[in-house]
C-alpha cells in the first residue's frame, strides 16, 4: 500500500507537528495585528469568564442559605441556555472578527493540528492566562462586597466570595454503588474525566470539517449549553481552563490558611461533616467541622483546579487521537455494518419514482 496514503489515514494523522506539515500555520503578519489579537483574547477571556464563572459569586441569602447569581436564573435549564446562547453568543458576536479562541484548549488544538504558528499559540495562551487572573480578581472583589454572612458554631462569618469547583462535591455526585465515602482523589478523577470529554465535545463543532460554517457558531452555543447541564451532574462545567481558573482564583489566592473563617463556612454549607463524621474532632478542642475545614477543603479546591486544567488541556490530544481512530477504523466499520444486506432503498418508493 502507498506509504503516503497510509500516513494520511493513520490514527495520528490529525497531529501536524513536523515542519513540512505546518506550512499553513497562521500568525499575524504585522505588529498591529499582534496587538489587536492580544487585546481581543484578553478582554474576550475576561468577558466570558465573568459571564460564566461570575455566576458563582455569592450575592445574598435566603432563609440563612447564601445564594449565588446562578440561582437567580431560576432553573438549571435556563442556566444552560444563558451560558450557551447569551454568554458565548455575545462573546462570539463581539470578538470573532479578530481573535476569539478565549480558551487554552482551543488554542492548543490549533497548534497541534498545524493551524497556528507556535509563537502565535504561545502568545494567545499567555494572554488568556492574564485574562483569567484578571477575571478572578474581579470576581473576588465583587464577592467581598456582596457575599453574605452566615452563622457557624455560634459565630457570624462571611462566606467565600464565590463558590469554587471542589473535588469532594464532585465525588459526592457518583452513584451509590461506587460512591462510598467521597474523597478528594475520587472527585479529582471525575473532574478530569468530565472536563476531558466535554471539552473534546466542544472542539467538535469548532473544528469539524463536516459542519457547514453557516451553522458552526450555533453548534458551539448549543454544546456550551449541554456542557453546563452535564456539569450539574458531574460537579464541573468549565470546558475552558481559563474560565475555570477564574472561578477558582479567589479561593486559591486569598484563602486556605489555618482556621480560615470563609473556608469553615464553605465546609458548613457543603455539610462535609456528613462525609467524614463527628469522629474527625480532636482533643485540641477543635470541632469536627473545623478539623475538616483545615484538612480537606482547600486541598479539595486545589485538586479540583489541577484536575480541571489537566482534563481541559488533555482534550485536544484526546480529540485529535479520536479523529484519527474514527477516520481509520470506526467510520469504515459503521458504513460496512449498516450497508451489509441493507435493502431499504430498494424497498421504498415515492410519487416521483412511480412516474418514471
From TrEMBL:
Signal peptide: none annotated. InterPro entries: Aquaporin-like, MIP. It is found in: Membrane. One of its GO terms (molecular function) is channel activity. It is a multi-pass membrane protein. SUPFAM superfamilies: Aquaporin-like. Gene3D superfamilies: Glycerol uptake facilitator protein. The chain crosses the membrane at residues 42-61, 73-96, 117-139, 187-206, 218-239, 297-322. One of its GO terms (cellular component) is membrane. Keywords: Membrane, Transmembrane, Transmembrane helix. This is Uncharacterized protein. It comes from Mycoplasmopsis gallopavonis.
Amino acid at each position: 500500500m502507498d506509504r503516503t496514503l497510509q500516513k494520511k489515514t493513520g490514527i495520528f494523522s490529525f497531529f501536524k507537528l513536523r515542519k513540512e506539515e505546518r506550512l499553513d500555520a497562521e500568525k499575524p503578519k504585522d505588529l498591529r495585528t499582534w496587538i489587536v489579537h492580544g487585546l481581543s483574547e484578553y478582554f474576550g477571556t475576561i468577558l466570558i469568564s465573568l459571564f460564566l464563572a461570575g455566576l458563582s459569586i455569592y450575592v445574598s441569602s435566603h432563609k440563612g442559605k447564601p445564594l449565588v447569581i446562578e440561582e437567580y436564573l431560576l432553573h438549571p435549564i435556563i442556566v444552560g441556555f444563558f451560558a450557551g446562547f447569551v454568554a458565548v453568543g455575545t462573546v462570539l458576536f463581539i470578538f470573532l472578527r479578530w481573535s476569539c479562541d478565549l480558551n487554552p484548549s482551543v488554542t492548543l488544538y490549533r497548534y497541534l493540528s498545524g493551524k497556528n504558528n507556535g509563537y502565535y499559540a504561545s502568545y494567545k495562551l499567555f494572554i488568556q492566562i492574564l485574562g483569567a487572573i484578571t477575571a478572578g480578581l474581579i470576581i473576588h472583589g465583587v464577592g467581598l462586597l456582596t457575599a453574605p454572612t452566615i452563622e457557624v458554631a455560634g459565630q457570624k462569618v462571611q462566606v467565600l466570595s464565590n463558590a469554587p469547583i471542589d473535588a469532594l462535591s464532585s465525588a459526592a455526585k457518583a452513584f451509590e454503588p461506587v460512591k462510598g465515602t467521597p474523597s478528594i482523589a475520587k472527585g479529582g478523577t471525575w473532574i478530569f474525566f468530565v472536563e476531558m470529554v466535554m471539552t473534546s465535545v466542544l472542539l467538535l463543532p469548532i473544528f469539524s470539517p463536516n459542519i457547514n460554517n453557516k451553522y458552526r457558531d450555533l453548534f458551539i452555543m448549543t454544546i456550551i449549553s449541554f456542557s453546563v447541564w452535564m456539569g450539574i451532574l458531574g460537579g464541573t462545567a468549565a470546558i475552558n481552563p481559563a474560565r475555570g481558573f477564574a472561578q477558582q482564583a479567589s479561593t486559591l489566592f486569598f484563602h486556605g490558611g489555618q482556621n480560615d473563617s470563609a473556608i469553615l463556612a464553605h465546609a458548613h454549607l457543603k455539610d462535609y461533616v456528613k462525609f467524614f463524621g463527628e469522629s474527625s474532632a480532636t482533643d485540641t478542642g477543635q470541632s469536627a467541622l473545623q478539623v475538616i475545614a483545615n484538612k480537606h477543603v482547600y486541598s479539595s479546591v486545589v485538586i479540583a483546579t489541577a484536575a480541571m486544567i489537566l482534563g481541559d488541556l488533555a482534550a485536544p490530544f484526546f480529540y485529535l487521537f479520536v479523529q484519527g481512530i474514527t477516520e481509520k477504523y470506526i467510520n469504515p466499520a459503521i458504513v460496512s455494518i449498516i450497508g451489509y444486506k441493507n435493502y431499504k432503498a430498494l424497498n421504498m418508493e415515492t410519487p416521483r419514482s412511480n412516474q418514471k
